[in-house]
Amino acid sequence: MNVANNISESALQLRDVPCDYCGSREADPVMRGPDRFCGLPGEFHVVACRQCGLLRTNPQPTVETLGAAYPNAYSPHRAEVAPPQPPQGLLRWALVNYRGYPSGEPASSVVRFFARPWAALKLRNRKYVGYLDYAGDGRLLDFGCGIGRYVARMAAAGWKAEGIDLVPEAVAAGRKAGLIIHQDTLPGASLPTDYYDLVTLWHALEHVPSPKATLEAIRPLLRPGGRLAVVCPLSDSLAARWFAAAWYGLDLPRHLTHFTRATLRRHLEAAGFAVEQTQCIRRPTFVNRSYEYLAQDTGSALHRWLGRSHAAARLFSHLALALHRTDEMLFIARQKM
Ligand SMILES: [Zn+2]
Question: Which residues have a beta carbon within 5 Å of ligand 1, which is an ion?
Fold first, then answer.
């Protein structure tokens, strides 16, 4: 199967799909909305599985025409990969001393002891959330890597980083920048088993037709003790509840599954992973963009202003953080033994 070949030729077709978690077709409508990001025609529906509560877009794009949901305007597949910059200065020092990165000599244990609180603060900055603990031989696979920005950053930081993505233009851009990118998907790709120390999915799991099948295909690729890192928009976040169909994280019809904290954890566990760690991630831009979408619906000058106010977005995102209801959360999981 090569969805990517059909990108330009086929128009989007929709079909009813069962729940990815429990297989039930019984569902209740939750909300509907247009494609606000790329402007594809039509209206799309989100439903909740009546058996298990998982939210999904239904009907959703067929696997054969899924590529049509990503027109050329879809920004993550465009642009060029900037030449990778290795971490510098204090960030590099913190990564070497507290995250096991191979790019320098660790400091003495006394220095590390006293600098620990400061380094923890530095590494908690959401800009650095992608610098996960270095492990094993540093073999990293980024699933749904797009043009490979993250792959490039991690390769520069010392990982043996590879990416996998279906979209030919994105893969070509990544390869042009000298990155190892597989043009394929999971399940489907033949990649080495018992090989990777870390597999990452940044905004990828909500895009695949069956998150369960993707996670199950990833599991054997990891070495024993290897880790999985997942970030996706969470539909039980404060902003998702507040903005409902105008929430930026909804991204219909490209987001096929709409996870909450509970349903994401459940999906990971069902695929053979045990969640070890979670971290809330503030996304002020989600708040601004959601107000922009809301302003399109209401025509309100206040909503337009809130769409531009960075202070208001920061305030909102800090409130979400205090409530543990941020737009995104990093889940780190290991294979269950
Ligand atoms: Zn279900």
Answer: 19, 21-22, 24, 49, 51-52, 54
